[in-house]
Every structure is written in C-alpha cells, then in structure tokens.
Design goal:
single chain; alpha/beta; TIM Barrel; eight-stranded parallel barrel; 42% helix; globular
Length: 293
C-alpha cells in the first residue's frame, strides 16, 4: 500500500515498561495488529510522545519498526522548534525507509504566514517522501495559515493536510480553498461529519485500541455510510480524551491486556484522573457496533 492511498493512519502510542524504557515486544505486537487491520502507522507524533523521547530513542523506534518491513506505510512525526534538528531528523528517516512525514506547524513561536511558509518549504525540500501538513493549534498555539499553505501546496512533496482544529466549519473553509489537496480528519469524533466535505481519511488515536473497528468506521465513512452518525463513535472516542492524550488510551490498552504498562514520559503520567470504567464502557459500545456491522 502506498502512503498516498492510505485512508486510515494510526497515531501509534510508544509502549513503555514500568521503568520508562521503550517496550519493543509490545511495539512489535502493536505493529502486527495495525498491519492485520491494514492501517498505516504514524510514529512519534504527539500520541507517540515524540517530543518526550531522546533523539537516540526516536531513531531506535523508527529503526525497529522499519526493520520489521510491515506491509503498511510508515509515517514519521516531525515537530519541534529548532529547524536544523528537524532537518537532521528527516535526513535520518530518509535513509531507513520511512514512507511519509507529518510536518506540524512550529511550536511556541507562533510564526505568521511568511515564517510558516519558510519553515515548511525547508522541510519539504529535505524530505524524500510525501508529507502531510499538520494543523493542531491547541498544541502549537498557532493556526496553519492559508496563505502559507498556498505557498507550499504545489511542492512535489506536499501531499495532504491533517486538520485538527476541532471545527467542522474550519475544515470546510480550508478544504474549499484547496480542492485538489487531500484533507484528513485529525479528530476521531468529527470524522463522520467531515466525510460530507470530501474528507480523505482519518489520523486516529482510537485505532490504537480498536484497529479493526476503526478500519470499518473509516471505510464506511469513505463509502458515505456514516452521515449523521453520533453514537457510539462520537461519545466513545471522546472518552479517550478525558485526560491529556495519550493517557486514557494507554490506560485502556493496559486494561485490555494490549500493553504491559500504561507508563508515560513526564510531564505526562498515568496517575491522572482517568475513570477506567468509563473507558471500558466505551470499549464495549464500540465492539458491539463492530459486531453488528
């Protein structure tokens, strides 16, 4: 499967042992689950705690996953503040078989249109693979500028946009300005509503714990069968965000025996107030929906 053909990307967690080390046996098992479901995998995004890992650990993760040679595309998250560090990271991933990159707007500095366009242009030039531009103002502090996107939309490596601004209207307005550029939903709960706006697919947190179920959810959306759906996906997927992501999804995956530990890297912690019973109830609803479909 080519990266450009993938309609569902799992923003994969980075499983860890109780002592905080990366749990490679669990990582292997999670990759196999995603491969079986036919889902592309995004490594080291915010759900994968990419910014909390040392550079050497990030390299080990992509080395390990690429060495498995899964029959699904692998995307690497690119995000931070220092441009030279992001160039070095892309250069490293270019050499080990990564199929795509997720390029997020710079953190903290809140650059305007000119700064964003310059930032993305450098990274797009550095990449040897297709790139998805990521708008997530709740994390970066700045909206992706339409003017900046106009400057880079024709770049040979600018393949798509992940829109996670949390607004249906915002998605529709941005998509209308770039009708030839694929737009992916970055919010599991909003996906059905964005399908009517020619949404190309989903970059999902929920598919960590529900890989096969989310695959069906996305396929139905692409076939026009989710219009008006509000339950169980809307409420159940929102249960995964009752604490900072990826705290709830790791807690649920541990409860289901999918990973050994729900450990996270500081400043995140599994000791946040998470109601496990609420997560298990959401899990039951999603499985019931899947079995009925």
């Amino acid at each position: 499967m080519k990266a450009t053909e993938c309609t569902l990307w799992t923003a994969l967690i980075t499983p860890m042992k109780e002592n905080g080390e990366i749990h490679f046996d669990d990582l292997n098992a999670l990759i196999k689950q995603q491969e079986q479901a036919g889902n592309g995998v995004l490594l080291l995004g915010s759900t994968g705690e990419g910014l909390a890992l040392k550079e050497s650990e990030k390299r080990t993760v992509v080395d390990y996953v690429c060495a498995l040679s899964p029959k699904i595309p692998i995307m690497a998250g690119v995000g931070g503040f220092n441009l030279d560090e992001q160039k070095e990271w892309i250069g490293y991933c270019n050499n080990i078989g990564v199929d795509a990159f997720l390029l997020v707007t710079p953190f903290y500095a809140k650059p305007g249109a000119v700064g964003q366009a310059a930032w993305f242009s450098v990274l797009l030039d550095e990449a040897d693979a297709h790139c998805m531009i990521y708008n997530v103002p709740s994390r970066t502090g700045v909206e992706l500028s339409p003017e900046a996107l106009k400057q880079i939309a024709d770049h040979e490596n600018c393949w798509s946009v992940k829109e996670a601004g949390g607004s249906i209207v915002g998605f529709e307005q941005m998509k209308a300005q770039f009708p030839d550029l694929p737009f992916y939903a970055g919010d599991d709960a909003l996906y059905p509503y964005l399908c009517v706006s020619d949404c190309a697919g989903l970059v999902s947190v929920a598919s960590n714990v529900w890989p096969e179920q989310t695959r069906l959810y996305v396929d139905k959306g692409q076939d026009g069968e989710l219009i008006g759906l509000t339950s169980p996906w809307s409420n159940s997927s929102r249960a995964l965000f009752t604490a900072p992501n990826p705290v709830p999804v790791k807690v649920l995956m541990k409860a289901k025996g999918m990973i050994e530990s729900a450990s996270l890297r500081p400043p995140l912690t599994e000791n946040e107030e998470v109601v496990v019973e609420e997560l298990l109830a959401a899990d039951e609803k999603i499985n019931k929906w899947y079995n009925q479909n």
